[in-house]
Amino acid sequence: MLRMTTLASALALIAGGALAEEIKVGVSPGEHAEIMEEVAKIAAPKGLEIDVIEFSDYVVPNQALADGDIQANSFQHQPYLDNQVKDRGFDLVPVATTITTPMGLYSSKIESLDDLPEGAQVGIPNDPTNGGRALLVLQDLGQIKLAEGTGLTPSVLDVTENPKGIKFQELDAAQLPRSLADLDAALINTNYALASGLNPKTDAIATEKADSPYVNIIVVRNGDQEQPWVKTLVEAYHSPELKAFIDEKYQGSVITSW
């Protein structure tokens, strides 16, 4: 028997005269999960039932998609996907852009970037893409200088100038908010900041520039791009209703791409 999760799903079945299609979409905690739950409400009357699956890290959602355990994911930006495809051989492709969530510098010890001490312990994500992103943010903030030609994935080995002698602590991205007490500051992705009760607009002491290349994407297995459910999923995500929800809920800390 087909599981009905909402009244809208049931009405869609009656109106369409056919069984609704059901998919599983992987997300990370925080705004990606909250937004996809809203997408599910919008997609249900269109005959698409979305089961939102949360993953606690950035690695498993692509593996789960490649393995066929889920049909799509929505948690990553293009540079991260490119790195995963290169390193792990995944045959995954983007089908739509979603939101941009500027990375922020947070601290429980200082209130201004000017207060960052000599030899500061600064946490950054330990995956190559988001770690590189954090270093680029620090460069834009004038705290370090990176070697030319490192692109979007520099490592701490590419730091050529470090006037304050910052000591980088590479940690799992999800652990960074909980590690603030042990650090002078940390570069934290917005989804993990929000999930930990941090407000990017009021709690971050500095943020990534608005013209960052890190817009997030919906990803599917190569070959599924033309599936009817993909079109419905993207239409639901890019709907005026969802844009209004994001604008009202996040008040500018999450920016829509459409």
Automatic annotation (TrEMBL):
Secretion signal span: 1-20
GO annotations of cellular component type: membrane
Pfam families hit by this protein: Lipoprotein_9
Keyword Signal: yes
InterPro entries: Lipoprotein_NlpA
Assigned keywords, A-Z: Lipoprotein, Membrane, Palmitate, Signal
Compartments where found: Membrane
Protein name: ABC D-methionine uptake transporter, substrate-binding protein
Organism of origin: Cereibacter sphaeroides (strain ATCC 17023 / DSM 158 / JCM 6121 / CCUG 31486 / LMG 2827 / NBRC 12203 / NCIMB 8253 / ATH 2.4.1.) (Rhodobacter sphaeroides)
Gene: metQ
